[in-house]
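Input record (one chain):
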Amino acid sequence: MFTLIPAFKYGWQEMHKKIWIFLLLTLLYSLADISNSYLMKDVIFTEDMNVMQFLEILPANFMLIISITSLVLICLSFFVVTFVLAGLRGVQPMTYLRMKIKRFPLYVLSMILKMLAIGAGLLLFIVPGLILLLAFYFMEFLIIDRDIKLLDAFRESWNMTKGFRVGIFFFEVNLFIIGYILAFPQNLWPDTLMTYAIIALINVVWLPLSWNAQGWIYQFVSENQINK
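The corresponding structure, as predicted from the sequence alone:
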């Protein structure tokens, strides 16, 4: 079982090494996130609403915009994972990107299928969705790192996360709690330009740190899986 302190320590160190690359990716991520928040700012959701009622109050073209934004985030995540892996493999970021760019179409397809599978599990039964989330946690890393096929990535992620899913779960819980605390400007000054600017500045540090921490966990699990 891994501990979180070394993961976040590694994330902090790697964030400084590729600060300009991660700065650009963070700003693009923040722009997409702010777009979604702005789109949802006038939507009032109550606990007694069912799914159909919620869909009725959504803004026009909401699903189209969300789908496009999600696709953009998936594409951005390819570059995030690639640059994180470049640090783990000791290769220059742009050199590693040129080596792995051919994996981009398969990566996008794998992420769409992963999101659909997890989404279906969460929608029908919460626990199966969480299990799938943890089981397929390293799919995107495997697709790029090991140059394996789509089904093999599903299978390999399922196998390599066995025995580590509790640790991964608590890592994600920590990310959620810290992210929620860091989103305090939205609670104090909701949907203002200052709020979005502060959140973007916070993300400049927090997102690269969490991305590289996840990479450290992938490396730890990979090495311990091999040693079993």
